[in-house]
Design brief:
The protein has 276 residues and is α+β, with helices and mostly antiparallel strands. The chain has helices at residues 2-19, 47-57, 76-81, 100-110, 125-147, 149-153, 157-184, 203-217, 233-242, 246-255, and strands spanning 37-41, 61-65, 89-92, 95-98, 190-191, 200-201. A hairpin with an 8-residue loop joins strand 5 and strand 6. Bound molecules: glutathione.
Length: 276
């Protein structure tokens, strides 16, 4: 009942904002209005990272499906939010944000008590930022080329295969670097901010877990034997811990990812939309 009421309020907030109607004076729940977000998502896309973060942080949000089958990410309405036509976008009271790492960083800075990112004054901040940027502009960027080789090297299948072989080597090296970081500085991956919950994942863990899930599953028609979770035991432990969290269950239920989305993933069976 409470949830239903909350959802109605969220929807009415965004409708009112669009139509420039006056906001209700008294919110019905403890969070301030500035905490309301809208996530543009497709199941098992990079938006999953943000959904996991929002769930983990306990922030109210609503979702808007980007219909990938219809190519909605290329339409004018979506490109007005993200000119690159990539998923995700998070609409916030400060405007629409795209780029997964930018959204994570913004959310973490905006809600510093959640432990999602190392705070500006933390001695961990420098290391945290370097690995978050590495995750975004090296690991994720390489992964995109592995998944969409045609976009980067054209239609020639031999060249696509060569590119993918190089990328598989690179990805293995990147995973090895991250495994070493997780062994040396586990506090970059598990936030120690709350003594009642010693397993709180940071943004790095959420981002990495999703990318490792995709390595295990995609591209579905190509060699994926190069990726073995057992090769990176510290990362594997983080992924297994993540699967025990209520936030992960909620996100996975919403996107049809099952109960072992990271350690034994299967393709998405979403209640709405499609992964690709
Ligand atoms: N650098 C972007 C990459 C996002 C990305 O690759 N999104 C994929 C889905 S996982 C996408 O939108 N693909 C649609 C396309 O390439 O047309 C980010 O971090 O947000």
């Amino acid at each position: 009942m409470r949830c239903h009421r909350l959802r109605k309020l969220r929807v009415s907030y965004w409708k009112r904002r669009k139509r420039a109607l006056p906001m209700p004076v008294q919110p019905l729940y403890a969070k301030s209005m500035t905490d309301l977000y809208r996530l543009h998502y497709a199941p098992d896309n990079a938006s999953l990272v943000i959904r996991l973060a929002l769930e983990e942080m306990g922030l109210p949000y609503e979702t808007a499906l980007v219909d990938r089958r219809a190519g909605a990410q290329h339409g004018a309405a979506y490109r007005a939010l993200n000119p690159g036509g990539l998923i995700p976008v998070l609409e916030t009271p400060d405007g629409a944000i795209f780029e997964t790492a930018a959204i994570l960083l913004w959310l973490g800075d905006r809600h510093p008590d959640t432990g999602l990112v190392s705070t500006v004054t933390s001695p961990l901040r420098a290391a945290f930022l370097k690995w978050l940027f590495f995750a975004s502009n090296t690991l994720h960027a390489d992964l995109r080329m592995l998944f969409y080789p045609r976009k980067y090297i054209g239609d020639n299948l031999t060249q696509q295969g060569q590119l993918q072989a190089t990328l598989r080597d690179r990805l293995q090296t990147h995973l090895h670097s991250l495994e070493t970081a997780a062994a040396d500085q586990p506090e970059l991956f598990i936030a120690a901010a709350d003594s009642h919950d010693t397993n709180r994942p940071t943004a790095l863990t959420l981002y990495l877990a999703c990318m490792m899930r995709w390595m295990a599953l995609y591209p579905s028609n190509s060699d994926r034997s190069w990726f073995r979770l057992a090769d990176t035991p510290h990362l594997a432990r983080l992924l297994a811990q993540l699967e025990t969290r209520a936030s992960t269950s909620s996100a996975c239920q919403a996107e049809g990812l099952g109960t072992t989305p990271f350690t034994q993933p299967h393709l998405a069976y979403p209640p709405e939309g499609s992964a690709i």
